[in-house]
Specification:
About 25% of the residues lie in helices and about 25% in strands. Strands 2, 3, 4, 5, 6, 11, 12 and 15 form an 8-stranded antiparallel β-sheet that branches.
Amino acid sequence: MATAARERRLPPALPLATLIGRELRAGGSERPALRYGHAGFAKRGEDYFLVKPDCLRVPGDPASAFSVFAVFDGHNGVSAAVYSKEHLLEHVMSALPPDIGRDDWLQALPRALVAGFVKADIDFQRKGEVSGTTATLVVIDGFTVTVASVGDSRCILDTQGGELQLLTVDHRLEENAEERERVTASGGEVGRLNLFGGQEVGPLRCWPGGLCLSRSIGDMDVGEFIVPIPHVKQVKLSNTGGRLIIASDGIWDALSNEAAAQACRGLPAELAAKLVVKQALKTSGLKDDTTCVVVDIIPSDHLTSPQLSPKKNQNKLKSLFRRKSHSSVGKLGGKSASIGSVEELFEEGSAMLEERLGRNLSLKAASPPFRCAICQVDQEPFEDLMTDNGGGYCSSPYAPWGAPYLCLDCRKKKDAMEGKRSSRSTACR
């Protein structure tokens, strides 16, 4: 199986705690302000978004604040998108160890995002509905941005210097060779729609089901190889801040990353989101639901200054995301640039659940030994501890696969996603 999307970490010399400490010693401990806006235009009415700017890691402690933004692009109905909007964040938060500091919380977040996405998929499929959805969930804590995504909704980062970074991976079979390889290795088939006479039309799809995506939440009527395991990327912005554009494929099918960013530079976030949607409709017309959320991460010293009049202060804010002149393009294109640079802390795209849940296990506040890493249900020792003996599940007093403990239902889901068995059939004999 291809491994190019496997984990790429920051070198050990620069762990997350060191970066945060460096910020504190440099006097950049003040949290940035967020300004955000959203816009959309409906064709089928299956796009949903989430804006939660005032979340707290520690109840009652403003210093523990973080913010969450998300876009969900439903298909085959709205049920999966609505469920994900209402419950996905809850599942992610339940997978985070309690009573840990900010450094450990940020380090544990990528693993919790994986568990939360899989938990949301399992719970929604239990409803028996056939709807599915993409999900792009963005967590902002200070200047640290963590993005988890399945499907083809996308998040891009535009820094002050005009450097663009794609923080997601499109899980479209047409464009993602690694995902095509994974689907076929798990027992699925990839091909185009076959008309009478053998003519093939349209984008690549996976069969059964005919879905163009290889990862989503829901979609219980297609093969188990359509997995909810997200690509996760975590970055730390410089103290100049940046702009995030989170949007459904109705935007990205019409606009390139560069065109979307350029369409709204120099504008406040609320107007920027409207301009991106307007430009997408102008380019391609209304072919799909179009949803866009724009989030500006603004250093506190750019927000208020006693030396600036209100008009000058507004101009200074606008200069953070000004339109680029042709002469400025490419000046800050490298990651080592001192202005507008972005530190990559974590990136992982593997669809192997054991690999994803096996990360970051050295935290001080470890989970109880018999708590399922996905559904977070505690179980008594020896209760439902399962290992596969080559033909069915049987009891075992330990988890011999060397990964975080999974209950029977979640273990069956894991095996089904890897093509070992269907989670919708009875495995015990």
